[in-house]
Write a structure and sequence with these properties.
Layout lengths: L2 H6 L19 E4 L2 E4 L3 E3 L5 E5 L2 E5 L5 E6 L18 E5 L6 E9 L12 E9 L4 E9 L10 E9 L2 E4 L3 E2 L5 E12 L2 E8 L2 E11 L2 E7 L2 E8 L10 E3 L7 E6 L5 E6 L1
Parallel strand pairs: 3-12, 4-16
Antiparallel strand pairs: 1-2, 4-5, 5-6, 7-17, 7-19, 8-14, 8-18, 9-10, 9-17, 10-11, 11-12, 11-13, 14-15, 15-16, 18-21, 20-21
The structure holds 2-acetamido-2-deoxy-beta-D-glucopyranose (2 copies).
The site of one 2-acetamido-2-deoxy-beta-D-glucopyranose has 6 residues, from strand 14.
Amino acid sequence: MHPSVLSVSFAALLLLVPQALAAPFAAMALTPGGYRFSASIHEVPLDGHIAHVGSHIHVINATGQVVQVTSSAPRVPTPVPEEASGWISYASWLNSDPSPISSFTASWIVPPVPTAQHGQTIFLFNSIEPATGDAILQPVLQYGPSAAGGGDFWAVATWYLFGDQTFFTQPVAVQVGQPLTGNISLAGTHRATYSYTVSFAHIHSTALTIHGSAPLSWATETLEAYGINVALAGGVVPAVAWGNTDDVADGLTTTVDVDGATDAQITITY
Ligand SMILES: *[C@@H]1O[C@H](CO)[C@@H](O)[C@H](O)[C@H]1NC(C)=O
Ligand SMILES: *[C@@H]1O[C@H](CO)[C@@H](O)[C@H](O)[C@H]1NC(C)=O
């Protein structure tokens, strides 16, 4: 990390929700995908995992028992202002190589706590999605409250959103200045389905594995990160050019400081 970069813009903003918009409906709760219906948000128990089984999604606990069965519906737009959901500023890369992404890691430092406390929630993460965009797997650093818990402190958890269903691991508090590595890796393939493991390095309880997924091919960064690394199956390093999307009206920008698949660096400023 170059200290100068860190001091200019220490953090990314994915979702910063003003208090007036918080908890618009009692039956809804905040996720990295915006407000969603609480009944469709599920905690994955410690050392548990998720499996797609036909059109159902199973949550399986550490001893192999299915503890939850859900079916996913296409996500319906929620009655929440557009500004309270969706991504504000990010960088992304779509893998068009037939070889799947085998690993995608991003390292960053837990930023200072926000100077103004007004009930906001901030999510910072790297993530990966299928080409259809109907799912997302992400190690998430959060400040403020969300459906997973949290409060006026930074905490990490991993999340999997599929259609209208949301799954998360119990948040773990982290310290300002603590180095984090968000790690997404291909755990295996079975016929035409893929298994992925997402975790924060060295924070065991954030590990979450998804079986039976479509290939995840759209990699995104919504944070200031350095040491971003992408590899394809077989150890191939792809030619990566990160594209960026800004919300200029709100002064939120993403800068690709160092492009490529190895040790790329991206800064999001707010
Ligand atoms: C898994 O779930 C089963 C059934 O609910 C329960 O009996 C078992 O204790 C659970 N295992 C763990 C590790 O919590
Ligand atoms: C990422 O996770 C995979 C699978 O759990 C592991 O083999 C690998 O060592 C991890 N990489 C880092 C940088 O933590």
